[in-house]
Design a protein that fits this description.
This protein has a single domain, classed as NagB/RpiA/CoA transferase-like (Rossmann fold, 3-Layer(aba) Sandwich). With 188 residues, the protein is an alpha/beta fold.
């Protein structure tokens, strides 16, 4: 099955999840993420988090994180060369803008560019080997190819698939957090 067909299939699966169920799953996922971030001493070490504002039907990873994490978050934006960068912002500071081909919540133009110490990575599907099927534009893969910190995939259990099509430029994740568990990816 092609990447495009997989994307369509996964979007259809996600569309079947009702709002109440998504809210419950988001809460459980957020608690699992909090445990992983605590295990990595993110607050104590002041590690900047490269985050993302969830698209429609994506889990909200932030609902159970204490307020103190907001001082460590940054969100994707574009630099003058149309490359992905991260700018310091809390969820409350995000504004709607047209970037990455969609209307999304992102940091204000004047926000300061930062280099995250770990990155939360969205995707339509992921495998326990750290493979990821993104939305098809390649922004994260290009950014992550030179990133050396932990790469944490965020998805629901229904988005896990052990037979994802991968290409040489695809970057593997280190962890995946779902509403049921935290997976430490085993890179074969």
């Amino acid at each position: 099955m092609s990447k495009q067909d997989r994307r369509k299939e996964m979007k259809a699966k996600l569309s079947l999840i009702d709002e109440a169920d998504l809210k419950t799953k988001s809460s459980q996922l957020s608690k699992n993420l909090l445990q992983l971030l605590s295990d990595h001493h993110v607050i104590q070490k002041n590690i900047l988090i490269g985050a993302f504002a969830p698209f429609d039907r994506e889990p909200n990873w932030n609902v159970e994180l204490p307020e103190e994490f907001n001082r460590l978050t940054s969100f994707p934006a574009f630099d003058k060369d149309a490359g992905m960068i991260f700018k310091k912002a809390s969820f409350k500071e995000l504004v709607f803008k047209k970037e990455f081909g969609s209307k999304i919540l992102g940091p204000k133009e004047e926000a300061i560019e930062v280099k995250p110490g770990l990155i939360l990575v969205p995707g339509l599907s992921m495998s326990s080997k750290g493979e990821r099927l993104g939305r098809g534009k390649g922004f994260y893969d290009r950014y992550l190819e030179n990133f050396r910190g932990p790469k944490i995939g965020i998805c629901l259990e229904v988005q896990l698939d052990e037979s994802l099509p991968v290409e040489p430029h695809d970057v593997l994740l280190d962890f995946i957090v779902t509403e049921k568990r935290v997976i430490k990816c085993i890179h074969a």
